[in-house]
Amino acid sequence: MSIDKTSCKLKSKNLQVIVNKITEATERASKGEDGVQLPDNQESITKLINNMRTYLIKDISISEEAEKSTLFQIQSTCHPFTESLSKSLGELKEQLQEEFSNSEDITETLNKLPIKPQDELFKRVFGCGQQCPFCKVPCEAGGKEHEKHHAAVHRPQGLGRYRDVATKKLVETLCTTDVHSKCKFRNTETKYEWHPYKDYMDYYPDWLIPPDSTIEASDYWKYVLVQYNERFAQEYEAKPADVPEAWRRITKEQALKGLKDAFIINNIQHTILNIFKTKQH
After folding, report:
1. What is the pTM assigned to this prediction?
2. Cβ atoms within 10 Å, residue 281
3. Is the separation of the CB atoms in 207 and 201 below 8 Å?
4. Could you give the CA distance from residue 150 to residue 269 in angstroms, rounded to a whole number?
5. Is residue 114 within 8 Å of 125, Cβ to Cβ?
6. Pick the residue with more confidence: 81 or 124?
7. Is the pLDDT of residue 200 over 60?
């Protein structure tokens, strides 16, 4: 941001928005309800200031005390005061733009902001906080406003503490695979009655879990389960999962490539979807 002077550009852009709003409010306030220019007397200034306060109420908080204090200090009539206000606004804009150009201290700017950009970025990356009901992978939809929870890469369900009722072993299958099959699940939501995975929306209508029996993007989590099978079992007070022999042949490089490919594809899909939505609007 320092190299590209991004902060300066953002400040100048916001400054222009503010100046435009004050200029528009001044022009509107200088006229009465009939659209006729206010008389050039000192009494009209009271109407002018009151109008400006009304028009800018959503953007600038001006108290009644501040309004009275301002009126007490004005010795001019309405028209010269309006002209002086417009001139001062232009001079202030130039002064601030010069300050923005000469002082590009990003750290200082960020420290002064009431809302920290790094916190907002974390919230978007973190998602909404919801987790897949089976593998506990977090929802990756940014912010709070989305119709369905979703994730680019799901995990073996054992990593979400699921275990086989009979053997007490961690479940090695992926939920994306199970929703494609005839397998069933049961938990507190189903009152421990068996329910088909493919009908998971009966209990979890807010989640979108794509059915896929050949998904390669989950190689990363298959690799993780193979490498830390014993430790997960110990942590979850279960027996280690029966991982397929093919999973044991997944290399670290393959696992990372699968993860990278999954998120690249996911980001491309989101970009296309956003472009489509924009065109619709």
Report:
1. 0.49
2. 4
3. yes
4. 13
5. no
6. 81
7. yes
